[in-house]
Amino acid sequence: MNFGISGDRLNKLLPLIAEIRNQRVLDVGCGTGYLGKILRDNGNYVVGIDTNTKDIIKAKKVLDEAYVVNLETDNLNRFQGKFDFILFSEVIEHLLNPEAVIKKICKCLKPNG
């Protein structure tokens, strides 16, 4: 299966997400839902967001919810304070203003998220 991540990064990431259980998770840059599905299979409620409409159609089949969202231009108020954990993998290098996006996405975390 092609995860869109280099083998080394994937090998480091999989053990980390395998430990996450019974959480509300936001999968930023979810693609087709390949990592979010692992989280969902571990008992998490997973919401995926991505800019690619075709990928989101696939993600909706394996995640609890999935939406087309542009992190740099869209309002994220509907997600504020809703998540225990945010997975933000393979995204930052695609952003024009990563610092602003990180500040915006952090508002989606619950207190102590």
Main attributes?
113 residues; alpha/beta; 4-stranded parallel sheet; 4 helices
Protein architecture, described:
The chain is an alpha/beta fold. It is 32% helix and 17% strand. The protein is globular and about 30 Å long. The N and C termini lie far apart (30 Å).
Quick description:
The protein is of the alpha/beta class.
Q: What topology emerges from the helices and strands here?
A:
Blueprint: H1 7-18, E1 24-28, H2 34-41, E2 45-50, H3 53-59, E3 65-68, E4 85-88, H4 98-106
Parallel strand pairs: 1-2, 1-4, 2-3
Broad structural category: alpha/beta
Uncertain segments are: none
**Tertiary shape:** globular
> What is the spatial order of strands in the main beta sheet?
3-2-1-4
Helix content: 25-40%
Indicate the radius of gyration in whole angstroms. 13 Å
